[in-house]
Amino acid sequence: MAHPGLYGVILGILALTTVISAYKNPYYAPNRTVNVHLFEWKWDDIADECERFLGPKGFGGIQVSPPNENVILRGYNRPWWERYQSLSYHLGTRSGDERQFASMVRRCNNAGVRIYVDAVINHMTGEPAENVGTAGNTAVFREWYYPAVPYRREHFNWPQCGIEGSDFVNNAWRVRNCELVGLKDLNQRDEHVRLMIVNFMNKLIDLGVAGFRIDAAKHMWPEDLQVIYGRLKNLNTAHGFPSNARPYIYQEVIDYGGEAISRDEYTPLAAVTEFKAGMELSNAFRGANELRWLQTWGPQWNLLASQDALTFIDNHDNERGHGGGGGVLTYKQGRPYRAAIAFLLAHPYGEPQIMSSFAFLDSEVGPPMDRYQNIISPSINSDGTCGNGWVCQHRWRQIYAMVGFRNAAGRTGVNNWWDNGTNQIAFCRGNNAFIAFNNNIWNLNLTLQTCLPAGTYCDVISGNKVNNSCQGKTVRVGSDGRAQIIIGAQDYDAMLAIHIGPESRL
Predict the structure, then answer these.
(1) Would you tell me how many other CB atoms lie within 10 Å of the CB of residue 433?
(2) Distance CA 254, CA 322 (A)
(3) At the N or C end, where does the chain have fewer CB atoms within 10 A?
């Protein structure tokens, strides 16, 4: 038997390992595996979308915009980044008030769709000319005084300093202690600051959220975040979570390599946003790299370990060219963008998240608004897509079909990889699903191993299954698992996908 003191240390380590591991496992409902970021949606609209679309289509969760009060920037025509200038932790924004937020969380949980909150805990506002928040509060910016929290000057990193471009490469201390683009930088080592943040996050847990995206995690010290995460409550069992379930946390750490701060400093705490995944897949599907190289996709590409990675093609920053994200595919690139997302969802690496945004030309512009600068709700067109200025990528058939594909694939790995030596690839997910891509300028027309049971399947990319027939391509799998796979170089989509389950198999 070990020495009692040593035994206690071992138990402590095991307990810490259990807690840390739990932060990396999203508590989706059974057979749901994909998160979607409904950027700037109103709470009532999200609740409706959970019940009419996201729940029935098998989505696992939603990242929602920051729910706490921000300063109103009418002079800037209410840009999207207004939501990241916190004025208090009161739950009042132009997405809705606390009652609407709580109702949304309850309705989405009932529909099997979990809510993940974008938590802005690194900073408060800058020093805008305007000084009224979305919940009616004010602050004295130049005194670092936010009475609705309350925060005073002693709760911020002092003396004031700003982050210079070279600091990201040379000075980790300044990146974590100085102001990001003039936003007043909180000192998370201060006990009062920790208490206010923990109270805010625990309130959201009480309301039924399943976890958090930690905005600007790179700009906070890992040891401070560890204290904050450790003080969070277990998830609320009244909302269908198992007892002792911990919130799923994914931390925004932009790290393309060669910087003073590494993503690896944060993976012991919780999952991390893997920006490299979107960059590399964008390069592949726009033709900068050949698809055949994706056979080794995953950590061998200098990506995070699968359990540590929140993966995506684009998010609200890099679709606008911010956050070192120049060059990622976005909704504006259509065919290669859909293919990159399909590969992201077809492959088992990481925890995937889809961006669902509004259309923009100016990268600063906020969501669709009426003349009073109130958010306009998305309209739903007859074909199921969105109107009123909303893109709603999650409603594109090619994307929601791949959510069903990933759910059908389950925990299976990649097997029976095939490629033509350049830009035509195919692979199975166990015996559950098969996908093929054609990024060449000539047709793919071959008999390939699908690994699926014999039968007739609808290609979920080219059309839906309706009344036991395929609106798009039909694929007949023989008793040996092989099928004729045809993807024309000029087809609307560069891919074909079939799987077990009612959405695909006839």
Answers:
(1) 28
(2) 11
(3) N
Annotation marks residue 40 as catalytic: no
d(CA 469, CA 181): 55
> Residue 235 phi/psi, 5° resolution?
-65, 155
What pLDDT score does 20 carry? 47
Integer Rg of the chain from CA: 23
Amino acid 190 reads D
C-alpha span between 380 and 361 (Å, rounded): 22
Rounded Cα distance between 141 and 170, Å, is 30
Q: Is the dihedral of CA 131, 199, 98, 216 positive or negative?
A: positive
Measured CA to CA, the distance from residue 71 to residue 136 in angstroms comes to: 9
DSSP H helical ranges for 330-371? 335-346
- Which stretches of the chain drop beneath a pLDDT of 50? 1-20
CA distances to 50, 292, 440, 449 from 423, rounded to whole Å, are 37, 6, 5, 18
What's the pLDDT score for residue 287?
A: 92
Q: Please classify residue 335 by burial: count the beta carbons closer than 10 Å to its beta carbon, then call 0-12 exposed, 13-18 middle and 19+ buried.
A: middle
| Annotated active-site residue in 48, 49, 167, 215 | 215
Instruction: Decide if 365 contacts 425 (C-beta within 8 A).
Output: no
Specify the length of the chain in residues.
506
Task: Provide the pLDDT for residue 321.
Answer: 83
Could you give the CA distance from residue 434 to residue 451 in angstroms, rounded to a whole number?
A: 7
- How far CA 455 is from CA of 17, 330, 442, 505, in Å, comes to 45, 36, 28, 7
Give the whole-angstrom CA distance, residue 134 versus residue 70. 6
Which residues on adjacent β-strands are paired with residue 26? none
**DSSP characters for 390-447?**
B--GGGSHHHHHHHHHHHHHTT--EEEEEE-SSSEEEEEETTTEEEEEE-SSS-EEEE
Cβ neighbors of 275 (< 8 A, separation 6 or more) are: 254, 255, 256, 318, 323, 324, 325
State how beta strands 455-458 and 474-477 pair: antiparallel
- The residue annotated as part of the active site, out of 48, 252, 314, 493, is 252
| pLDDT of res. 325 | 52
